[in-house]
Design goal:
about 325 residues, alpha+beta, Peroxisomal Thiolase, Chain A, domain 1, 2 domains, 4-stranded mixed β-sheet, 10 helices, 15 strands, binds oxa(dethia)-CoA
């Protein structure tokens, strides 16, 4: 059975952190941030939790697409910022949304989490186990940001997006690519209890630490290769794709990938300029911006590719077909 994404909803907190805010707390300036990252502003929660933001995003989906979520039969929740290790975010969301009987799992794949979630949802539907799957991405990254480190604090923001994946007779989710390079795990990490990783010393401050330059180089090189591989395994070419949605970590990464794979900038969707790096949320948030700006239309082919901590990546092509 084929499946597709049939609806989307998002939530961003009201509080805006502009670049000028960071000029007051670290040695940086608006010009550097815009030139090196493309980011103009990002959002930060007041008191909202990761699961509360997801609930608000799900309500947005319900209202916009007139969808009943009470019969969702599986929830896949992608996040690296859960407040509790147990219970899972997915099971908290099941209760909050009054969903009667659903399987629930959390998925941790950092910024690639949303695409991994879509892949799992597609697989569950294709083997006939499920019919209505909520794939959720929600992150409160500002809670895990070191506001004394100018190389990371300017990057991250908070947001949530959810999509529904349902069986479809005229649209499909294509074969994915994914992979992991665990030997580079220390390039991006968020650790609370351990003081070493892969035999190397790390900071266990519960704040995100990254080797930005290393991730930047890896992301441009590997994602360019993997986009070409994703097209090849699905017998598609760049011209067949209506919109490319790479993970929005840095506008320069997106521009470099587009240039490598010969994609026109007008065919890319991003959320980094307005909302910063929201990890698992950047891809669905960029898609939602494309829908709200009347760029994405039913029938469009979308190529999404996430990458980040792991290091891991996942890419997929989807026929967008809101129902
Ligand atoms: O989503 C998870 C995966 N993460 C990523 O994809 C992140 C990928 N990496 C990046 O986005 C970029 O590497 C950063 C935005 C983190 C950094 O940009 P960059 O162009 O790679 O800068 P850099 O690290 O090469 O630093 C250049 C200079 C350095 O100064 P010196 O050594 O040349 O004197 C930094 O100390 O810029 C300095 N710098 C800053 N200056 C002003 C670093 N951060 C800042 C800052 N404001 N916020």
């Amino acid at each position: 059975m084929n499946s597709t994404i049939t609806g989307i909803g998002s939530y961003v907190p009201e509080k805006i952190l502009s670049n000028s805010y960071f000029e007051k707390i670290v040695n940086t300036n608006d010009e550097w941030i815009v030139k090196r990252t493309g980011i103009h502003e990002r959002r930060a929660v007041n008191n909202e939790t990761t699961v509360e933001m997801a609930k608000l995003a799900a309500n947005d989906l319900k209202n916009r697409y007139n969808k009943d979520l009470s019969d969702v039969d599986f929830i896949i929740f992608s996040s690296s910022t859960a407040e509790h290790k147990i219970p899972s975010l997915a099971s908290q969301l099941q209760y909050m949304l009054d969903i009667k009987n659903a399987g629930t799992i959390d998925l941790t794949a950092a910024c690639a989490g949303f695409v991994y979630g879509i892949t799992l949802a597609q697989s569950l539907i294709s083997i006939g186990f499920n019919k209505k799957i909520l794939v959720v991405a929600s992150e409160v990254l500002t809670r895990h940001t070191d506001y004394s480190d100018r190389t990371t604090c300017i990057l991250f923001g908070d947001a949530a997006s959810v999509v529904l994946v349902e069986p479809s007779s005229n649209s499909k989710i294509y074969k994915p690519v994914f992979g992991t390079e665990g030997e580079n795990g220390h390039a991006v990490y968020l650790s609370e209890f351990a003081n070493e990783l892969n035999g190397l010393p790390i900071k266990n401050t519960n704040k995100i630490v990254q080797d930005g330059k290393k991730v930047f180089k890896w992301a441009v090189e590997r994602m360019s290769q993997k986009i070409n591989e994703l097209l090849t395994i699905n017998n598609l070419q760049v011209k067949d794709i209506d919109f490319f949605i790479p993970h929005s970590a840095n506008l320069r990464i997106i521009e470099a990938i587009c240039s490598n794979v010969n994609v026109d900038k007008s065919k890319t969707l991003q959320s980094v300029t307005q909302f910063g790096n929201t990890s698992a949320v950047t891809i669905p948030l960029a898609l939602d911006l494309g829908i709200k700006n009347s760029l994405v239309k039913p029938g469009n082919k979308l190529l999404m590719i996430g990458f980040g901590g792991g290091l891991t990546y996942a890419g997929i092509i989807v026929d967008w077909n809101e129902i």
